[in-house]
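Entry type: protein chain
Record version: 2
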Amino acid sequence: MILQVFVVLLSATVQATAALSPFYGLALASNSPATFALVQLDAAGQGTQIGPIHSEIFGESDLVASANGIFYYLGDTSAGTTLVGLNLTNGVKVCSKAVPLSEVGFVGLGQSLSYDETTDTLVLSGLNANRTTHSVYRSSARTCGPFHVVDHFADATYIPMIHSSSLDAKNQRLFTSLALTKNTGSIGIIDLTGKDAMVVVGEGTPSPADTLVSMHWDSISQSLVGIAAAENGGLAVHSFDLSTKKWKVSLAVTGVPSDWNALLGNSATVSTFDTVGRLMYFIAGDVNSGGNIEGSFLAAVNVDNGKLVSYPKMSRVGLGGSGYEALLKAK
């Protein structure tokens, strides 16, 4: 069984979490016009909408962060790329402000959003106005903006359709998906201190499995980790070791239900990682021949041994499918 890439029509997002803590994210609340609402998801897969709906459009991805009781996401308005902050308790909008980042085709494509707990700032990146370079900004994690330029880097000729990022706050390194050619993926490692030049890690070599779609920094193993469909069917954990600068052999996931045929949440860019608990949470399930989701599950896999330890079925919240794919731990 090869897990197909299935992009759900709902918005959602992710970041670091602890086991048994609630997850947060966004759900599509209405269409024409599209509106979104904050949702909370418990460890048993039960979800609840929190507060009112919001008009800032969100694209399914990992473009969320939380800090100081606020859920942040990068969305879209008539002004372009927009940072939105929602109160985690009642879902009320705290702030909304345009960010000087360009958009290409789809909301959030080529952009990133992370929380840096060492400086209590948000780190944002994406194409600048002329679309020839990427720009990195910082903003206070207590409101939306102002945005201060940190750095620029010039690998922006092509934009990967499936995009993810992660942050190593301790060592001030931003990891982000890049595409040096239309068909060649890579990972950019940006030194936010400005001391070192950006490093680009090629993907798909020496093995075609040497890729990261979902991307999470694992401070314990000093690696980037992610979940992906395995070449021979099923699922696999992929890892790139930053200490050795080498790809690790992919780890097959055991215990995957035989009827799962879809890796949901934008190929698992909608996923999150509990570093201490060693669990990566993602959304998978089964999709029928008509493209409709028959069931979506909150899966948790141990990244050290590949064991699928739990997968409660997710309740429906919002429109379509399960209504959300959201895994974000409040900070």
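Comment: Residues 1-20, 321-327 have pLDDT under 50 and may be disordered.
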